[in-house]
């Protein structure tokens, strides 16, 4: 039998809970720990990043979907 897994926690940026694939979700490091970032925050921050000459955050396919349990 196989199953699917996702994590749910607050976004580091907006604090709104969301579900995601922990292996693919965009994140930032705070004190060495990865902190997940939701799609809305990525969409909000990317124009500012580009305006400041930074690369936009790229969201991997499946970042906000469940993952097969075998990928744990």
Task: Explain how this protein is built.
The chain is an alpha+beta fold and 72 residues long. It has one helix at 39-51; strands at residues 4-5, 7-10, 17-20, 27-30, 33-36, 67-68. Strands 1-6 form a two-stranded antiparallel ribbon. The protein has a two-stranded antiparallel sheet with strand order 2-3. A two-stranded antiparallel sheet has the order 4-5. It is elongated, with a radius of gyration of 13 Å. 11% of the residues are buried. The mean pLDDT is 95.
Summarize the structure.
The chain is of the alpha+beta class. It has one helix and six strands; from the N terminus they run βββββαβ.
Which SSEs are present, and which pair or pack?
Layout: E1 4-5, E2 7-10, E3 17-20, E4 27-30, E5 33-36, H1 39-51, E6 67-68
Q: What amount of the residues lies in strands?
A: 25-35%
Placed side by side, the strands forming the largest sheet appear as: 1-6
Q: Give the uncertain stretches in residue-range form.
A: none
Q: What number is the mean pLDDT? A: 95
Which properties best describe this structure?
two-stranded antiparallel ribbon, two-stranded antiparallel sheet, 1 helix, 72 residues, alpha+beta
């Amino acid at each position: 039998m196989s199953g699917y897994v996702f994590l749910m926690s607050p976004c580091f940026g907006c604090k709104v809970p969301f579900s995601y694939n922990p292996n693919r979700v965009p994140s930032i490091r705070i004190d060495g720990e990865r902190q997940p970032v939701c799609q809305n925050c990525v969409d909000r921050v990317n124009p500012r990043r580009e305006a400041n000459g930074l690369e936009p955050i790229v969201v991997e396919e499946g970042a906000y979907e469940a993952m097969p349990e075998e990928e744990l």
